[in-house]
Design goal:
Layout lengths: L1 H13 L4 H50 L6 H21 L1 H19 L7 H18 L7 E2 L2 E2 L2 H30 L4 H12 L1
Helix pairs in contact: 1-4, 2-3, 2-6, 3-6, 4-5
Length: 202
């Protein structure tokens, strides 16, 4: 996908490309998306799902143990959790690179379409602009190949949702010990002193 984008960028910098080359590029792109990318995602889908499920379970268990049950955090468990979450986010980032490459293809095709207006309104350029417009419309309107993970689209929305869940759980785990430390170091107020004095008298 990166090589295809580099070819498009080179054509855009040259300000001209034969229409037959665009047809070949489109066929090569469709073949890569529906064969290579699809097979690679199908092969490693279980690995990404395993990392995601195990990290979510560890994160949820840590949040419940520390934030709700008020247990002391285990440093070894936090170390394992940080490694698993890092591996999960790395795998997810690699899986979403296809989506970002598709977005770059759309922007580069738009640059290539705009560059054709420099040479006027020749019939071959009008045909090329129509072809580029069809390709851009198809890619940007949902007709392009969509990478999925367990029927969920691999796009920035999915990536932000996973990151937000991990971030919220991390904040809940880190906030409870900090709040306990602040409450322990807080000096006793007037009401606390009177309550303690009444308790001692009893």
């Amino acid at each position: 996908m990166h090589i295809l984008d580099a070819i498009l960028a080179w054509w855009a910098s040259a300000d001209h490309v034969p229409t037959c080359h665009l047809h070949v590029w489109k066929l090569a792109r469709d073949s890569i998306l529906h064969s290579d990318v699809k097979n690679i995602l199908a092969r490693y889908e279980n690995v990404v799902l395993a990392y995601l499920a195990f990290s979510a379970w560890l994160m949820t268990d840590s949040a419940v143990q520390v934030a709700i049950l008020n247990n002391a955090p285990n440093m070894m468990a936090l170390y394992v959790l940080a490694i698993m979450c890092g591996c999960t986010l790395l795998c997810e980032n690699q899986a979403t690179q296809v989506h970002y490459a598709q977005l770059r293809h759309i922007s580069t095709l738009q640059r290539l379409q705009e560059s054709t207006y420099v040479y006027g309104e020749r019939p071959d350029l009008a045909h090329q602009r129509n072809l580029l417009d069809q390709m851009i419309t198809r890619m940007s309107s949902g007709g392009d190949y969509q990478t999925r993970l367990l029927y969920m689209p691999l796009n920035p929305t999915f990536q932000k949702a996973v990151f937000a869940y991990f971030f919220t759980a991390c904040v809940s785990v880190a906030t409870r010990p900090i709040a306990d430390g602040i409450s322990l170091s807080r000096p006793l107020g007037a009401f606390d002193t009177l309550a303690n004095h009444a308790t001692d008298q009893k």
